[in-house]
Amino acid sequence: MSVHILHLHSSFNLGGKEARAVRLMNLFGDAARHTIVSGVTDQIGARDAISKSVRYEIAQDPPSLTGKPSVARYEALARYMRRFDLVLSYNWGAIDGVMARRVFSKGMPRIIHHEDGFNSDEAGGLKFERNMYRRIALPAAHALVVPSQSLEKIARRAWHQPSDRVHRIVNGIPLINYQARPQERAIPGFRKKPGDLVIGTMAGLRDIKDLPKLVRAVGGVSARIQLVIVGDGPEKAAIEAAATAMGMRDRVHLPGFLPDPHRYVGLFDIFALSSKSEQFPISVVEAMAAGLPVVAPSVGDLADMVDHSNRPFIPLYGGEVELRNAIEALAVNADLRRSVGAANRSKALALYDESTMVHAYARLYGNALGQEDVFTASLR
Known about the structure:
Elements: E1 3-9, H1 16-28, E2 32-38, E3 56-58, H2 71-81, E4 86-90, H3 95-103, E5 110-114, H4 120-123, H5 128-137, E6 143-146, H6 149-157, E7 166-168, E8 197-202, H7 211-219, E9 225-230, H8 236-245, E10 252-256, E11 270-272, H9 282-289, E12 294-295, H10 302-305, H11 320-331, H12 334-351, H13 354-369
Parallel strand pairs: 1-2, 1-4, 2-3, 4-5, 5-6, 6-7, 8-9, 8-11, 9-10, 11-12
Helix pairs in contact: 2-3, 7-8, 7-11, 9-12
């Protein structure tokens, strides 16, 4: 008999945490059925990536994950959560599920909380009141999962979580997919032209990704450059405005969200991020697997993720000028791009295959259920 898992998401559009959650759902197959709560009811785009063979539903009328703290709201959440065998909550927007278990623990299933990073409101520093809230809520979780060393330190020092309950599981991808050549027409409306250097990124078009800064940085590079930004989100107009202001609107391509990055990421010559906050971005692992050099601010674990030869292009202060200079250094030196990219690919092959990640989650979730093989058996 399969277990019934409740997933509490602040939103369920396809980003890093959602992509990982869906990938695990697909791989666990018949071992579980799933109910998904999206705190923003119309943001459920990640459902399109769920395999047709997976048994799941999007909750239609769940208790709210947001609002002022109140006993009544926690009680409603707890009553709802008791229907399930295991609860998985994701990021600050779902922390009230953990608090509900703290306040109303009787008869509750175990809950595992996942923290993957911060939005713009905490990118510049953690909020005192949220730290206090997490310190109160998180002892009710069976485990806290983080992808990065940076978040692991925060969990222990700022949130006062004991080491044996904090599990760092780095993000992995199916590396075998990146052995094939990229497909020349995989990006709608874009064709790579001889002599052009292609800077590419994959990111939600959100304020925290600071993509207008990337446009300005690329616009200052001397080489003949095309910039491709794969992703959807509310910042599209701001990105287009930055491109127009830089006189490069015809060289900035916004194809929207595209699945299966292995089909197109190899069309890029340099992968770039401009984020205010990251932890262990899957997009960087995908770029490394495709053999690309990476330019990005030194946030989260980025400097440790890439090969040591790539670290000079991860500036400590990732402002517009620093990103432009890093891109320029790679843009004018094809041999350097190839050597750094090859080193990144070797590191990805050695450390970031998804099988390690998937088995770690399978063991953790199975342990929480008291059925250690319930998910690992489906992976054999």
